[in-house]
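Q: Sequence in, structure out?
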Amino acid sequence: MILTALKKLWSIYFFVWFIVIFLMLYPLFKVLLSKKKWYTKAHSLRRFWGKTLMWLTGLRGETTYEEPLDRNKTYVFTPNHFSYFDIVSVNTQMAHFFSFMAKKELANIPLFRIFFKTLDLPVDRKSKDGAKKAYYDAYRKLSQGTSLLNFPEGGIGPQVPNMRKFKLGPFKLAVELGLDIVPITLPDNWKRLPCGEFVPAGSPGLMRMYVHRPIPTKNLKQGDELALSDKVYAIIEKKFNELNGL
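A: Exactly. Output:
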């Protein structure tokens, strides 16, 4: 009981710093997101936000690359999703510049709105027209050379270690444009901040990220996205279970 209370206090401590640091950096974000040519600098500032936050709250990031990523290539990143900390992880622990493609509800949160009006892409999954618009917006960003990160589960999975069935959007985009898919396994974030409670019982500690070898799609054709999503699902699931001793 006491331990749970302390963990909840730590979660509150984390979110207080989350907001405080953002408010301190907000004027800089406002400037850097005012022009597209500065978006990469805004993303670097977002990484600084995350690194500072992790340092202040006792979170230790550890990133492993199966092989180095090409800084000049455009990728579609597809991580698993079991915790709100996943957003902190992918922003902070991977240096590659990218835009988020995430559910519209995140864009309604005041802290995130500035990003979804500029750098990131909101998806209205309850509307066919909204989903179609997001797809074309993502297609345009990728075509212009901006990598995209999408949680293919479409939301936080309800039961660790069972991931939700993957949505095909990011895989269709990769196949259509001939871009590499990069699976990402996040094995620890659900331990650091489990979901399901208004104030979760979080804890400081290790947050590993395993960035898998890019999967080429140039030789794939329309209709191959389902097999591709199944392949990525299996890669992430295997590594998640391995790193958690399951």
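The domain at 2-243 is CATH 3.40.1130 (Glycerol-3-phosphate (1)-acyltransferase).
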